[in-house]
Task: inverse folding
């Protein structure tokens, strides 16, 4: 563990951790490549503990999130990153330029942008980014819920129902979508549609 992380202090106390040799394990003459999101406060503090050794090459990917490798996977760059880093051939600047050029195709980028905008109280950016994240990956439950909550709170019932239908078509266990659809149908004043949604929820095996 790191000295500034205490969110799970009681749970961590019950785990017999092995000593962290990360800092002392850096071997002179070896090159290290570390990808991280410099907007992620905890990850940035962890990175700062490693210092600015010349053998450590940082790939800073703003709004890549804590699961930065998933972002690389989403744009097909993960294999290149691993191969080039393993052989010491990774061009950090070139990879960052490629990812920056394609960031608007990455659901995780918009998800992280939405979260950052929420923390900084920029609701227009937050809602735009949540919508873009869902548009790029409508089958993802977390992205759907973030977008659906905004549509629910802004009472955009027709758009919410359309988003629910899109998510339901892609997700084999769309419990959240049916619940949002029930609310939107009720608000829209359609008792028949509301009843059909309630029947589906009652007869499904994932509610």
Result:
């Amino acid at each position: 563990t790191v000295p500034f992380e205490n969110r799970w202090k009681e749970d961590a106390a019950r785990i017999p951790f092995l000593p962290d040799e990360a800092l002392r394990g850096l071997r002179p003459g070896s090159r290290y490549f570390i990808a991280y999101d410099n907007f992620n406060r905890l990850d940035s503090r962890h990175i700062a503990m490693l210092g600015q050794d010349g053998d450590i090459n940082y790939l800073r990917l703003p709004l890549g999130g804590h699961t930065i490798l998933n972002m690389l996977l989403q744009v097909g760059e993960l294999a290149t990153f691993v191969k080039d880093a393993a052989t010491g051939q990774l061009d950090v600047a070139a990879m960052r330029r490629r990812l920056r050029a394609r960031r608007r195709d990455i659901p995780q980028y918009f998800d992280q942008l939405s979260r950052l905008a929420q923390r900084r109280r920029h609701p227009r950016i937050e809602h735009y980014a949540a919508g873009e994240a869902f548009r790029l990956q409508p089958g993802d439950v977390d992205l759907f819920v973030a977008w659906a909550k905004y549509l629910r709170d802004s009472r955009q019932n027709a758009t919410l129902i359309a988003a629910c239908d899109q998510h339901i078509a892609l997700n084999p266990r769309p419990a959240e979508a049916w619940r949002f659809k029930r609310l939107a149908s009720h608000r829209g004043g359609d008792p028949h549609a509301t009843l059909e949604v309630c029947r589906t929820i009652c007869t499904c095996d994932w509610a």
